[in-house]
């Protein structure tokens, strides 16, 4: 498994392609920073959750949603730097095997939002190999946009957790998430059918 | 024997009066069913009994903040959870408390087995324990230290109900006076 032959894609473009496929009120948890901004820019949905901190917890938060609502597909969008901060979560997810959880890793090798410093793993670590080694057998690099869409389609039918990694460019996020945590959380719970609006 | 469990009085059913049985029953009564944890010697009987009870989904996580993320997501999805940890694990949580549980108003329920006091033998544990209450206080976060078996059910049950209804985190600190703590062996 190598990143060598994968195309460098654009985060907003692939996020938009993902959102266009969601027809069943699937939940989407966006990691902090640009991953989140592009999720917002791709079109707000009540089933989107936007993190404003707690770097590295997009997959654990999505795991919690997936365990609470096993009949709903749950996506999580995470950056490579954030994932490095919480690699143990991959093993936890592999052990629990939630079949409705789909993890997407946006890898540009840099901490883009803090000034584009390279991550300590840039150029040496293969995140899909790490995921496979963590026990997530259904993990793959997307070769290009069409391959990404194919992998998403497969993941939506899979009976085990899936991880899809993409190499992306260093373009900044297109939008900016609103920064009201309670409003974000309350809208998300409405979107998941847990709460009714007042 | 590292765990000095409190023994029930003769004639009483041991399973009903132990601290860990009371915690388990209180969780169950309040429909708290998702229990991620990072292990602790003193919590071992509680963790073992949670695993044995199909009402609960009990599993280990690699880090405490991961467990906080999981129960936060679960609560937003309509399922209640609680995190089990020891004091050294709590010390890793300042960021996730201040950036997720508190600002998003999530009723995060934490049970913290207290190391670092009443006979602690590891200097690092005693120092890290002293960071816990200042962190909780600095975030104005509800916390109770439970030392007595006869107060455990009241404090745990009311604290869980308060956390849920006020949408605020709570830390329940299980003191060695309650659990027996960990005694020096190795």
Characterization of this structure:
Chain A: Keywords: Decarboxylase, Lyase, Membrane, Thiamine pyrophosphate, Transmembrane, Transmembrane helix. Chain A: Pfam families: TPP_enzyme_C. Chain A: InterPro entries: Sulfopyruvate_deCO2ase_bsu (IPR022494), THDP-binding (IPR029061), TPP-bd_CS (IPR000399), TPP_dependent_decarboxylase (IPR051818), TPP_enzyme_TPP-bd (IPR011766). The complex is a heterodimer of chains A (about 200) and B (about 190). Chain A is built from 8 helices and 9 strands. In chain A, helix 1 crosses helix 2. Chain A has a single domain, classed as Rossmann fold (3-Layer(aba) Sandwich). The N and C termini of chain A lie far apart (about 50 Å). In chain A, about 35% of the residues lie in helices and about 20% in strands. In chain A, strands 1, 2, 3, 4, 5, 8 and 9 form a 7-stranded parallel beta sheet that branches. In chain A, strands 6-7 form a two-stranded antiparallel sheet. Chain A has about 200 residues and is α/β, with parallel strands linked by helices. Chain A is globular, with a radius of gyration of 15 Å. Chain B has a 6-stranded parallel beta sheet, with helices on both faces. Chain B has a domain of about 130 residues: 3-Layer(aba) Sandwich (Rossmann fold), CATH 3.40.50. The radius of gyration of chain B is 15 Å and the shape is globular. Chain B contains 10 helices and 6 strands, in the order H-H-E-H-E-H-E-H-H-E-H-H-E-H-E-H. By secondary structure, chain B is α/β, with parallel strands linked by helices. The N terminus of chain B is likely disordered.
């Amino acid at each position: 498994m190598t990143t060598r032959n994968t195309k460098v894609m654009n985060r907003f473009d692939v996020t938009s392609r993902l959102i266009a496929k969601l027809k069943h009120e699937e939940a989407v948890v966006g990691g902090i920073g640009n991953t989140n901004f592009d999720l917002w820019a791709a079109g707000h949905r009540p089933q989107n959750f936007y993190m404003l901190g707690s770097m590295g917890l997009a997959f654990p938060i999505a795991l919690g949603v997936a365990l609470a609502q096993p009949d709903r597909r749950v996506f999580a969008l995470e950056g490579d730097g954030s994932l490095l901060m919480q690699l143990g979560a991959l093993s936890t997810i592999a052990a629990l095997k939630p079949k409705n959880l789909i993890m997407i890793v946006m890898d540009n090798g840099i901490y883009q939002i803090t000034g584009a410093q390279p991550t300590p793993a840039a150029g040496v670590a293969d995140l899909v190999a790490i995921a496979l080694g963590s026990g997530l057998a259904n993990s793959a690099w997307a070769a290009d946009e069409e391959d990404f869409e194919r992998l998403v389609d497969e993941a939506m039918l899979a009976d085990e957790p899936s991880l899809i990694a993409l190499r992306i460019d260093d373009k900044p996020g297109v939008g900016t998430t609103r920064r009201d945590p309670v409003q974000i959380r309350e809208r998300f719970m409405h979107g998941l059918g847990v709460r009714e609006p007042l | 024997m590292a765990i000095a469990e409190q023994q029930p009085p003769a004639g009483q059913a041991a399973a009903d009066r132990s601290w860990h049985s009371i915690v388990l029953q209180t969780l169950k009564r309040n429909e708290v069913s998702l229990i991620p944890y990072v292990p602790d010697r003193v919590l071992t009987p509680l963790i073992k009994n949670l695993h044995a009870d199909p009402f609960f989904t009990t599993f280990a996580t690699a880090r405490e903040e991961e467990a906080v993320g999981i129960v936060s997501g679960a609560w937003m999805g309509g399922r209640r959870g609680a995190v089990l940890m020891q004091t050294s694990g709590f010390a890793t949580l300042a960021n996730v408390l201040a950036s997720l549980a508190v600002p998003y108003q999530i009723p995060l329920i934490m049970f913290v087995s207290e190391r670092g006091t009443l006979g602690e033998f590891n200097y690092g544990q005693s120092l890290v324990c002293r960071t816990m209450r200042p962190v909780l206080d600095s975030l104005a976060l509800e916390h109770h230290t439970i030392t007595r078996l006869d107060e455990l059910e009241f404090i745990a049950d009311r604290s869980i109900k308060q956390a849920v209804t006020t949408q605020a985190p709570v830390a329940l600190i299980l003191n060695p006076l309650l659990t027996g703590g960990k005694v020096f062996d190795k």
